[in-house]
Design brief:
This protein is mostly beta strands. The chain is 0% helix and 46% strand. It has strands spanning 3-9, 12-19, 47-52, 57-64, 81-84, 94-100, 104-105, 108-109, 123-128, 133-145, 160-172, 177-188. A hairpin with a 4-residue loop joins strand 9 (123-128) and strand 10. It is globular, with a radius of gyration of 16 Å.
Length: 190
């Protein structure tokens, strides 16, 4: 069963799309005996920094999973981004997904406010805790309604790709969320 990913900006929550189910060890256990141990964190250094020179982004990456409600967890600040830790590592086969906030909170701009300014050919860099950097090249930017299928955003196989997700479109005052999602599609640099 797919979990629904939700990102929050301070007091604002908004839906993104159903995401692939995390592995068994990431689900909320019904009993201690039903939990498969998580893989050792030493098998691969965690991603720690995202740099996007064109839009002056140089920020911390938080490795986050899902909340008790089954939603994708969100960065702790509007300056950080979050990597969906139950998907591929940036640089591995499949689509690594990184989400960041959009908007302004108490006069401070969010990390992905200028994500829409990226163009094909722009470079993104992810550095892991061991200091290794993987570069990605932007291929395209797509905007989705929150009801659109986003199957091409999440993939655990195929070429090494990076997806950056944030909000876009108009603010729905009733729902207290943005009505669209902006996704940057990038491929690992060769």
């Amino acid at each position: 069963m797919a979990s629904l990913m939700v990102f929050a900006l301070g007091f604002v929550a908004y839906k993104v799309w159903p995401a692939p189910s995390p592995p068994q060890y990431a689900r909320i256990p019904t009993s201690a005996a039903s939990v498969t141990p998580a893989p050792s964190p030493t098998t691969h250094p965690l991603p720690s920094r995202l740099k996007i020179p064109k839009i002056q982004v140089d920020t911390n990456i938080e490795a986050l999973g899902i909340t008790a409600a089954g939603n994708m967890d969100v960065p702790s600040t509007i300056e950080n981004v979050s990597w969906y830790k139950y998907g591929p590592y940036p640089g591995q086969a499949g689509s690594a997904v990184i989400a960041g906030h959009y908007g302004t909170l108490k006069g401070r701009r969010s990390v992905f406010n200028n994500l829409n300014k990226l163009k094909r050919g722009d470079v993104l860099m992810v550095t892991d805790a061991a200091g290794q950097t993987v570069s990605f090249v932007v291929q395209e930017i797509r905007t989705y309604r929150e009801t659109d299928s986003a199957g091409e955003v999440f993939s655990s196989s195929g070429a090494s790709q990076l997806r950056l997700i944030t909000c876009a479109g108009a603010w729905d005052k009733t729902q207290k969320r943005f009505v669209k999602r902006l996704v940057v599609f990038a491929d690992k640099a060769k």
